[in-house]
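Q: Sequence in, structure out?
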Amino acid sequence: MGWMSGFSFSSPIATDLSISNTTMSRLTIGWVALPLFAGFVVYLIPRLARPLALAAALASAVYATLLFLREVPLSFGLLDRFGVTLLLDPLSGFFIFTNALVTAAVILYCWDTGKSAFFYTQLTILHGSVNAAFACADFMSLYVALEVISIAAFLLIAYPRSDRSIWVGLRYLFVSNTAMLFYLMGAVLVYQANHSFAYSGLSRAPLEAIALIFLGLLVKGGVFVAGLWLPLTHSESESPVSALLSGVVVKAGIYPLMRCALLLPEIDPDGAGVWRGGRALLGVAYAVFEKDTKRLLAFSTVSQLGFVLAAPEVGGFYALTHGLVKSSLFLLAGNLPSRSFKELHQVPIRRSLWIALAIASFSISGFPLLSGFGAKVLTMKSLLPWQVVGMNLAAVGTAIAFAKFIFLPHRSFPPDSQSQPLKPGFWAAMLLLLGGLVLANAVYYEAYTVENILKPLLIIGIAWIVHKLIFRQANVKLPRTAEKFEHLIGGMSLMLILVFWMVFAWVAN
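A: Exactly. Output:
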């Protein structure tokens, strides 16, 4: 498998614990159905809402672990060529594990906050539909999973029932459904050419099919300019919902692009690295100037998913690291006294919060001893030399952006202080997410060479100097015109033209 070129889980333990394909297939069907079943049971027995939701997330973590221990991918179909095709391997295992940890952390965070059974129902259905998107290998099953994700995400965004949240949710739903119309047309063209919806048929489909499907997935994944719907949606949602959206939901659009790139390398030429690097730089260019904590995190997601896509064969590990970091940062941002960096510099924040912010910010900046270090080294190692230059610039920009969190003033508060209390489950969620960042550091321990350690330290040092000298004093406000609803739809049309041009260029070469 291509993704294993950087590291491997093969071991005597893995061989001993291997499970037959038949048993694993049955487990897979049960695992896919469990969250959807649990979501409906919650309506019948509301008092079991939190335990059932948590059990579904933990079951996903166990299933992902089984995928890591298998030495061969699991692939099977249900029904006939009109049915469901599933493909599961360690790459999908990373995404499923990310979904499990982020969902469990959000449940722990919300445990004693008074959320209704309706919230946990949508959360559980969202978890199951994201799992389905990571498991399927045909375009029609993916379409169904993505549509369910859109509806569940909309209901979670609109959960507060305020005018603002309902508008943001409807805006997300409209953009998402428009993108999926393009996707559906592409899926039909794939079927017309192959009499099957399987991913493998994409190479024999007409060029229009590739362009239409890619456009739909690029919008769903928030890729490049097609992802400008993302900053407002992620920043205006409640913090737990933002953590889910940024930690796992956007990856449901990213994962099929990676899977197609690995299955069909002929449709993923080296030139595709241009727009991947462009995405990383576009997001970070906005993030370094952003004065709002949650919008900075949202633009950082636009950038970081460029790193995930940059090297599909090792992108699963980067996706796990990003999911843990970004969900922890969104939960932390929800407990800060203000969203404005200007106001946060006026009043010191609680020191315990700052320590958690610093750990997550150091990880996403690539600091050693945290999993972000290994993920960045592994990704850079898998790129072509000309691609590394752009990604290094994006890494410097990332360190500049997150220096804003690291250099926030902080102090200890006495136990009886009147400062804003934290959510009861806050530290349990932080322990899961930040502990995961430390433990996942062992996944690619081969990264610890003198050269690899010095490089991120140099990048972070340069970034902090630039932050101190330039960006901390800068008062630049970038226009938000491109994020307006009417421009998002227009931008989608322009993106379709760009994707068509890229596909024709690939074929011509």
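Residues 1-16 have pLDDT under 50 and may be disordered.
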